[in-house]
Structures are given as C-alpha cells and as structure tokens.
Automatic annotation (TrEMBL):
<dbReference type="InterPro" id="IPR019336">
    <property type="entry name" value="GPR180/TMEM145_TM"/>
</dbReference>
<feature type="domain" description="GPR180/TMEM145 transmembrane">
    <location>
        <begin position="37"/>
        <end position="257"/>
    </location>
</feature>
<feature type="transmembrane region" description="Helical">
    <location>
        <begin position="35"/>
        <end position="55"/>
    </location>
</feature>
<feature type="transmembrane region" description="Helical">
    <location>
        <begin position="67"/>
        <end position="89"/>
    </location>
</feature>
<dbReference type="GO" id="GO:0019236">
    <property type="term" value="P:response to pheromone"/>
</dbReference>
<feature type="transmembrane region" description="Helical">
    <location>
        <begin position="101"/>
        <end position="120"/>
    </location>
</feature>
<keyword id="KW-0472">Membrane</keyword>
<dbReference type="InterPro" id="IPR047831">
    <property type="entry name" value="GPR180/TMEM145"/>
</dbReference>
<feature type="transmembrane region" description="Helical">
    <location>
        <begin position="207"/>
        <end position="229"/>
    </location>
</feature>
<dbReference type="Pfam" id="PF10192">
    <property type="entry name" value="GPR180-TMEM145_TM"/>
</dbReference>
<feature type="transmembrane region" description="Helical">
    <location>
        <begin position="140"/>
        <end position="157"/>
    </location>
</feature>
<protein>
    <submittedName>
        <fullName>(spotted green pufferfish) hypothetical protein</fullName>
    </submittedName>
</protein>
<keyword id="KW-1133">Transmembrane helix</keyword>
<feature type="transmembrane region" description="Helical">
    <location>
        <begin position="177"/>
        <end position="195"/>
    </location>
</feature>
<keyword id="KW-0812">Transmembrane</keyword>
<dbReference type="GO" id="GO:0007186">
    <property type="term" value="P:G protein-coupled receptor signaling pathway"/>
</dbReference>
<feature type="transmembrane region" description="Helical">
    <location>
        <begin position="241"/>
        <end position="260"/>
    </location>
</feature>
C-alpha cells in the first residue's frame, strides 16, 4: 500500500588512499604541500630565533627583526591549522570550517606584518632612523587599516558569495582586485621610501640594493600569481597550484630576509649598526627634533660580529 520507505547513504570517494579519498581533483596534493611547507617554515622560524639570540647578545635585536619573527611564527601557526583542517577533511570528508578560517586569518596577519615590516625598513626604521615621523606613522596606520578592512571584506565575500562547486579562487572578486591594487600602491611607497633612504644614507647600498631588488620580485609576485590563477589556470587545478605558489612566494620572502640579516661577519648586507641601547640616547639627544631621529652614518654593523679575540676599536667611539 504505502510503497517502500528507504534510508540510504552514498559515499563517493576518489579511491581508498588517505591522501585522495575525500579530496576533489583541485585539492589533490594540498595536504602534502602544507605539511612540507609547515616543516620548512618551522625550520625558518627556529633559525630566526637562533639569529635573534645572537642579535640580542650584541644589542642588535631591533623591532623590525622582531616583526619578521612574528610573521614567521604566525605563518607556522597558520600552516599548522591548515594541516589539521585538511587532515580531518582527509579522514571524514568534512573537516572543521572554523580551523580553515582561523588558518586563513593567521595567514593574512602574517602577510600584513611582513608587508608593514618591509615598508618600515624601506623608510629606514631601525636602519637609518630611530623612529618614523608623526605624518609617516599616520599614513601607515591609515594604509594598514584600509588593507585590513579590505581583507575582512574579502573573507565576508568568500563566505557569503563563493560557491564551492564553482572552485573559485579568493582573488577572483572585487575585494581580491582591491587587495592587488593596494599591493601595487604599497610597492610605489616602498620604492619611494628606499630611494629617500639611499639618498641620505648612500653607504647603506650593500643592504638596500639587494633588499629592493629581491622584494620588488615579491611585490609583483602576488598580483601576477592572482592574474595567472584567474585567467591562466584551469578551475579544476587552480586551488592546489595556487596554494603551492602562494606558499612558495611567502617562503622566498622569509628566506631572503633571513639571509640578508644573518648575524655574521661575512654578511656585507647586514642592515643594523646602532645598538638597541643607543636608541634611547639618540632620541634624548640635545639636538632634538628630526636630527635626533636619524642614526649616525655607518655602512653596516657586521663589524660587531668580529670574534671576541679581535678587539673592535670602532665601538670605543660609538655613541
């Protein structure tokens, strides 16, 4: 009379392998990629801690280096949450969306901290000056606020309008294009800041020339990657390819900074020459005003890394 009443459950999988069973074609390899980069970034973070220990012992652990360490540490946390999310997803095909969102938020925080550090270094903060001018601080605050708001809009847009079935890339949205525009604006600011710093401190070329060259590539890598992803990569392969490229770009940026700031006497690119204990003296200098913000001229600080058996007479005459 009433016909059949059936309850059934369908489980569609891609084979029986843990690495592919619950993943779609565009997600193959993401978990393995994230695990690999997690290990590498963790090593980068540990190395930065070791360098920081050496820098602190020589009173050269400046704010900008601490920002780099923060960016690297947050990147590690981001990758950890992503790995946990994809691991759970590989197990049950569902995962925890909150873990994925948290991972993305931390990834964005790491990027923003690193970007701010680059602009500050370009302006000479902790390299040629003890602090940023009031107007410069206001501009930076406004810019970073706009950047953060745009990121928030991107997250909201992704949550509300992205259809997972369409396999859309995060930058393929108005907010994503806005982020690319802000990135290019940051590069223009970065260029101007570096040129001004070099004009007043030409002896800092060993640091600023490789710094500017390598991070010019980094600034353009993100917009170029986004454009290629949007128009050149098939949708079925987009997520896994973009994930690997994006992490590779971040790793490039961190390794370059680690290399040019390594505390070694052989490092001719080392940026810092004023000790952290001297900054307070400079800021309280009787000269006052803008003059007190600027560091004394010095090529680079690697002379402080001479062995203990070698006396460094230049330190006797430092401020």
């Amino acid at each position: 009379g009433d016909g059949l009443q059936l309850e059934y459950e369908m489980k569609l999988t891609n084979g029986q392998s843990f690495w592919t069973q619950h993943f779609s074609a565009d997600e193959f390899g993401i978990l393995e990629t994230d695990i690999t980069f997690l290990v590498i970034f963790f090593m980068v973070f540990l190395l930065s801690c070791y360098f920081a220990y050496n820098l602190k012992g020589r009173q050269l652990l400046h704010t900008t280096y601490k920002m780099f360490m923060m960016a690297a540490g947050v990147e590690v946390l981001s990758l950890l949450f992503h790995c946990v999310y994809w691991g759970l997803y590989a197990r049950d095909g569902v995962g925890s969306s909150s873990l994925k969102i948290l991972g993305k938020l931390l990834f964005s925080v790491s990027f923003l901290v690193f970007l701010l550090m680059l602009i500050l270094l370009g302006k000479g903060f902790t390299v040629t000056r003890a602090r940023i001018s009031h107007s410069g601080s206001v501009k930076l605050s406004i810019y970073m606020t706009i950047y953060t708001i745009t990121y928030v809009i991107l997250f909201i847009y992704e949550a509300e309008f992205f259809d997972p079935g369409e396999v859309l890339y995060a930058y393929d949205s108005p907010a994503g294009y806005g982020l690319m525009g802000l990135q290019l604006l940051a590069y223009v600011w970065f260029c101007y800041a570096v040129l001004v710093s070099l004009k007043h401190y030409p002896e800092k070329q060993p640091f600023y020339v490789p710094f500017f060259t390598t991070y010019t590539l980094w600034f353009f890598a993100v917009p170029v990657m986004a454009l290629i992803a949007n128009f050149g990569i098939p949708r079925w392969a987009r997520e896994k390819i973009v994930n690997g490229i994006q992490l590779g770009i971040h790793l490039y940026a961190h390794i370059v900074f680690l290399a040019i700031t390594r505390p070694s006497a052989a490092n001719k690119n080392f940026p810092y020459h004023v000790r952290t204990s001297q900054i307070g003296i400079l800021l309280s200098s009787p000269k006052g005003g803008e003059g007190a913000e600027s560091f004394p001229h010095h090529a680079y600080g690697n002379s402080t890394f001479l062995g203990d058996s070698q006396p460094n007479f230049t330190e006797l005459f430092s401020i």
